[in-house]
Design goal:
This protein is mainly beta and 186 residues long. It has 2 helices and 14 strands.
Length: 186
Amino acid sequence: MSGGDFVKVPVLTSYHLLHPKPAVIVVSLDSNGKPSGMTAAWTSPVSMKPPLISVSISPRRYTYKLIKETGDFTVNVLDVNLVAEAHFFGTRSGRRVDKFAESKLTAERSSRVKSPHIKEALAVLECNLYREIKLGDHILIVGEVLEAYVKPGAMKRGIYDPKVAKVLMHLGGVGYITISDEIITP
């Protein structure tokens, strides 16, 4: 190894070096109109014009199948108080479990897409499926954001107010943290 005082990490887990990341629940509908969702941390904005975001999803996931069928989805940003629900939605398959019936989360009608959003979420992005790109063992789902909203008081001057909005962040494995109250500026 060259270049200073570092310790090697396994390349297969190197993505942990890019964490923590917001834990979100991606929600879509099955062909009967029943909602299901999965927890994801591999999300990112990818364009401002048009407003596009990406979510990396394994093609084996039930939520991937639903997004393909429905053509839309919601991305639900979670508050730290929803850590148990984030873990539940990330460890159970919607093929076998009605996640909304077995959790304390409420699927609520969205304004611009068929897929519902989570009433208890801190913020919501309603998205149409814009494109998908196969990358290794995951599919990069790109969604065009049609509508976005946040709980009142959670933002100040266009960014989350860290004293109010305690965004749930996935640290890796079963570990989660939240953001500090302090805003750091240069």
